[in-house]
Write a structure and sequence with these properties.
Oligomer: single chain
Strand content: 15-25%
Distance between the termini: 19 Å
Length: 227
């Protein structure tokens, strides 16, 4: 996907039922958790991790409050724009999310209801690219099984443990330390996140819709030129 620099998704880390505000940590899957939001690159290395959120929060709501997202919106980090097609707006760098995420200037997602073949092809390309984050979470939990069990620590200490697992995961990826493939595949299946589309936080912006149209047309023209 042109201009995509990362893939965003959330995952739930089971925790012991908190003594206070336990309902805030009870997620849609039916257990208490910390909601972890992460962005990985095309190699499955995590670039940004935020794990301070209660499990009941919707992925898109967490994303809207991420420091990384807020910095992109405020232009406080460098953004590269590229002209994909003559006569169309320039496309900025963006992350790719699932349908639960907002469609915005810096976050791209698939069409919920395809109207033509070009949109079908775009969705297929985007889903293939987005598979990187699901695989990254699968490898993470295959390596550190503490992330699959109820973490029995004080709430304020849990993020430190989670962050440590992400850092060690990146180290293992960089050093090409392998994992058991069967365990890895099972973890991908277990980790599939299916937050429902939220009427408020999963909304589409005009800017995001336009950028998706440009990407759709660009992919279509690239495919036509390769025939």
């Amino acid at each position: 996907m042109p201009q995509a620099f990362g893939f965003v998704d959330g995952t739930h880390i089971p925790i012991r039922r908190p003594l206070e505000s336990s309902q805030d940590y009870f997620n849609y899957k039916g257990f208490h958790s910390m909601s972890v939001q992460a962005i990985c690159d095309s190699k499955g290395i995590f670039m940004n991790v935020d794990c301070k959120w209660p499990g009941s929060l919707h992925d898109a709501k967490v994303f809207s409050n991420l420091t990384f997202n807020l910095r992109m919106i405020s232009n406080s980090i460098p953004i590269t724009y590229r002209e994909l097609l003559p006569g169309f707006c320039k496309v900025p760098c963006y992350v790719i999310g699932d349908p639960a995420y907002p469609l915005s200037t810096f976050c791209l997602k698939e069409y919920l209801h395809c109207q033509n073949n070009n949109q079908v092809v775009f969705n297929t390309s985007l889903r293939t690219a987005r598979n990187q984050i699901e695989c990254a979470f699968g490898r993470l939990k295959a390596r550190w099984e503490i992330l699959k069990k109820k973490i029995d620590l004080k709430l304020e200490n849990i993020p430190t443990v989670i962050y440590a697992c992400f850092v060690l995961h990146n180290f293992c990826k960089i050093k090409c330390i392998t994992i058991d493939e069967e365990v890895f595949i099972n973890n991908i299946k277990e980790n599939i996140n299916s937050d429902k589309v939220d009427s408020i936080y999963s909304c589409n912006t005009d800017e995001g819709s336009l950028i998706r149209v440009v990407n759709t047309q660009y992919i279509s023209e690239c495919n036509n030129n390769s025939i």
